[in-house]
Amino acid sequence: MAKLPGEFDLIARYFKPLARRMPGAVGLEDDVCTWSPQADQEIVLTADALVAGIHFLPDDPADFVARKMLRVNLSDLAAKGATPIGYLMTSAFSPEIDETWVKLFCEGLAADQDEFGLSLMGGDTVATPGPLTLSLTAIGTVPKGRAPRRNGARPGDKVLVSGSIGDGALGLKVLRHEFLGLEEAHRRHLANRYHLPQPRVDLGRALMQSGRVTAMMDVSDGLAADLTHIAEASQVSATLRASAVPVSEAAAAILADDMSWLPLVLTGGDDYELLLTAAPDDVPALLGLAAELDLPLTEIGEIEKGSGVTIVDRDGTPLELGAKGYRHF
Hints:
Oligomer: single chain
Order of helices and strands: HEHEHEEEHHHEHEHHEHEE
Mean pLDDT: 94
């Protein structure tokens, strides 16, 4: 095991290069970073914490851990149509973390910084007896007053979701050595979707710019739970048509063999797709925007008066799924 260097050597060697494109971070040689948004923009901030053994597997590759940590926050920015700018990060390293792990971790961050166009702005690095704990605050910008919130859904709106649902939760099962009879290509797809979610930054920005979205958030706790969040914030009810929910070929193969996995698909979380509502007349235009970005957008339900979320099967019969999504406690 390559023992960790001292705190300041560690920062200079691995974290300082991640801040080189952020002038206000001054090479991480100060306690703060300064940065000013353009006059017509407002700042969007979001934060997530990840704990080894809870939010990721202890033996997950360090670069995957870093990239997932960054991407789950970028997904929150995407749901507001925000452009990513930078992030603050706190790392509490446990005794089993060595210099090789930190090097790979920072290589993962560097790769995603290049892909999504943002920089490290600062943070803190400490030691802990365990478990490994990480926290990241992502910062973006959006035109003033334009960020779609959860509370704008209206009776009559349609419910739409991007991409496919269920892969993250099923991917965790694959990594825990379930679905051993599943085709290897499907197993790889599901595991990759768990390890490396795809924040829909470009789609979120296009949807925001269209002005046609009434409410939007990302799917992290589970489709059913996150639609419930929109319904509660908007003081409306929603109907979710289970048969309309888009799934990947890998998830479809699992469901074709055993439909008892449907509740996990609808409630398991870790999807990081965009969930949104819009007036019926605006749906074709939104589908067109998504098609231009080569990313499916699917209509999966309706918003109505009342409260709560009802999930129905193909013939309209309500389905009882038990818990509707992930809760931290």
